[in-house]
Amino acid sequence: MMKVYRSEKAANKIRSTYDELLKQWGIPVKELMVPTMYGSTHIIITGKEDGKPLLMFHGVGDDSALMWIYNAKALGEYYKLYAIDTIGGPGKSLMGEKYNTSYDDVIWIDEIMNYFNLEKSSIIGVSHGGYLVQLYSLYRQEKIDKAISVSSSVPIDGSGSYLKTMMKIFLPEALFPTKKNVIRLLRKLSGSHVDVFTHNGIILKHYQWLLKGFNNMAMRYHKVRMFTEDEVEQIKDKIYYLVGLEDPFQKLGGAALLRKYNMNVKFYDGVGHGINHEIAEIINNEVIQIMEGKAAF
């Protein structure tokens, strides 16, 4: 079985700082390990007990504790939150035997929905999590209430190599994750509000250990499937996109695709890839407006 972490020391440091980040959420949380055919999925449950459900997906190379640190408290006042650690990612989920032979994102999310008896739910994701939102909305439209894709774009045929884009953005800093390089990388990824990362010592420590200790190959079974133009049309009226114009992924073509296909998108000036961290209050309010059917796009 492939290892998620490069060493036991890295695993311990990442789990330790994960728990410290979770304390910074400032609200009571419950952590569950949910069995699926691909392994045990770690899910943080918090928020309004009788609120509308909201499934939350993080990006590649990060985890739920980091992703929702500035969002969970505000959104939890209104909704019941299910913050999900991706199997193969650097959270607390554990890979099972079938993960590396037959993994399917849609079936995995189905199993999570079924475990909690959710016939219908809203869904939000950032970066790769935003791709999962689009994928699940394509295949399971009847199970989705509101769908919000943050710092993501249309996964359309011809949109270029995802791996090449990642390398262009993350190298060379990610190869040599000194504290100085971690800060340099965060500045590359962010807009004018990078201090939300660089002024939080636990975020810096956690992110540095993610870059040092996470084995990116553990995510290799999460295949990003390109959509056809017909499939983009199918999801067009169902997804809300929230995007920062300083996001390097958007500058490398993501924003152009959202405009080309006339998707439901709001662009934010001076904001980078970590939009839900950088302008958390604005994004939290926007998510609430979307969830309540009051958003203007």
Structural notes for this entry:
The radius of gyration is 18 Å and the shape is globular. Helix 6 links the parallel strand 6 (121-126) and strand 7 (144-150). Helix 1 (8-24) runs antiparallel to helix 10 (201-213). The chain is built from 14 helices and 9 strands. Helix content is 42%, strand content 18%. With 297 residues, it is of the alpha/beta class.
Summarize the structure.
The chain is built from 14 helices and nine strands. With 297 residues, the chain is α/β, with parallel strands linked by helices. Strands 1, 2, 3, 4, 5, 6, 7, 8 and 9 form a nine-stranded mixed beta sheet that branches.
What percent of residues adopt helix (DSSP H or I)?
A: 40-55%
SSE string, helices as H and strands as E: HEEEHHEEHHEHEHHHHHEHEHH
Euclidean distance between termini CA atoms: 45 Å
Shape: globular
The quaternary organization reads as single chain
Query: Runs with pLDDT <50, length 5+?
Result: none
Mean pLDDT: 96
Main pleated sheet = 9 strands, mixed
Count of strand segments: 9
Estimated share of beta-strand residues:
15-25%
The structural class is alpha/beta
Give the count of helical stretches. 14
Report Rg: 18 Å
